[in-house]
Amino acid sequence: SDERLDILLVGLDSGRPGERTYLTDTMMVVSVDPMSGRMAFISLPRDTVDVPLPKGNDFRKARSVFGSAYAGRINTLYITARLRDDLFPGNDQNRGYRALMGALSELYRLDIRHYVAVDLKSFRGAVNAFGGLVVDVQVPLFDDAYAAADGRGKLKLYIPPGIQRMNGRGALAYTRSRKSTSDFDRSARQQYVVESLRDQVDLEALLEPGTIGELREQFDEYVTTNIPARMLPQLVLLATELDTRRPKSLVLSPQRGFGATQADYDIKPNLSKIRRAVRNVFKSASKAPAASPQRPSPPADPSVSLEPDPPAEP
Q1: Dihedral, 86, 89, 92, 95 alpha carbons, nearest 10
Q2: E-assigned strands of 84-177?
Q3: pTM (2 decimals)?
Q4: For the chain, does the N or the C end have fewer beta carbons within 10 angstroms?
Q5: What is the mean pLDDT of residues 274-300?
């Protein structure tokens, strides 16, 4: 097809063990233009408020309660919809994702039909299943109060610059930490990790008979998605034709004029600017520079204070 393909990537932070709050702190749309072979990453800050809701029948009940826009922070829409089966369509497994796809489709003026979601534990497992991830760390990352994924207190985190292979736990820390930088810088790092993972996958090998089915069975443990298995060969074939040397990076941050930060840190989006940027994301020939984190002062005892993950299962 010559239609633009948009897939929502969701990162769920389920909070501490025993909690039922699921915040979607990562909401990234991978957009593909099959005509030009170009791809783009579009990230929305988790603290964005007043995201418009669609006018269709699926959202009629929700709009009768919330109005034309969801006033809460967008990272809470998933759990709100999941707990309100009287307002949002779908079942307990997909209701929250359908709400997110609808709201971001309306915000961006895109047609987002598919999603891929992971939580903290699943992200670690997926990276380990790939045998780790090679990352070129441009700026060192230091966080002296990194929240452990299992909820057991704080860790001292230091990721030095340079090319290194990260296991699942290290990759999670690199994409999750924001205390010494910002949520917008974190979004840029998340885009870079997805891009790096794509570059390290041997797509040609995936097209060998039976390989995709085996991979899908392996990742069903880690990944939640509504992409049907029959579409995977088409998506892999499309991925082999993409020009990954020039991916566009679009982080919709207030610093770039896409929203105004209020006193309580909520971000109110500038709808016209966001929609224009998303519409024209493939028109620029150059890659937009990713946000660069501020250089933190190195710790007295620089070390990555994270226990290594066990080796990936063969």
Answers
A1: -120
A2: 114-119, 133-137, 141-147, 154-159, 162-166
A3: 0.80
A4: C
A5: 59
